Amino acid sequence: MKLLLDENLSDRIIRSVIDLYPGSTHVKTVNLMHTEDALIWEYARIYDFVIVSKDSDFHQRSLLHGHPPKFIYLRIGNSPTSKIVEILRDQFDVISQFGSTETESILVLG
Q1: Tens digit of pLDDT for each residue in 86-105?
Q2: pLDDT in tens, 52-70
Q3: Cα–Cα distance between 37 and 87 in angstroms, integer?
Q4: What is the pTM of this model?
Q5: Rounded to the nearest 10 degrees, what angle do helices 56-65 and 37-46 cross at?
Q6: Which of 5, 16, 43, 102 could serve as a FRET partner for 26 with CA atoms 20 to 30 Å apart?
Q7: How many CB atoms lie within 10 A of CB 1?
Q8: Alpha-carbon distance 71 to 105, whole Å?
Q9: Do strands 25-26 and 49-53 pair parallel, antiparallel, or not at all (unpaired)?
Q10: Do 42 and 35 meet the contact criterion of CB atoms below 8 Å apart?
Q11: Are 63 and 56 in contact (CB under 8 A)?
């Protein structure tokens, strides 16, 4: 499963989780910084990414449109990058199971 990290998350997270989520990237890497959520959503859909964000707008979009793409909503407030890495690594089994289900669109982690 490939993750697409939103701009509200550090791009440094990728190098700490790439072993678990090969092919993952950050919106900065694919020139989607400071762009509309709809463009990020469409990019993730086309290229088979799961969006990871702390942005509630993606949560609303996911409720309205379903998947693809799937969305991981990090409800963690202002947390250090190390905490986000810890969540993505510690919750790997849960995230992998979420990625393989046909019915779930949103995974909330906190």
Answers
A1: 999 999 999 999 999 999 99
A2: 999 888 888 888 888 899 9
A3: 23
A4: 0.95
A5: 60
A6: 102
A7: 17
A8: 6
A9: unpaired
A10: no
A11: no
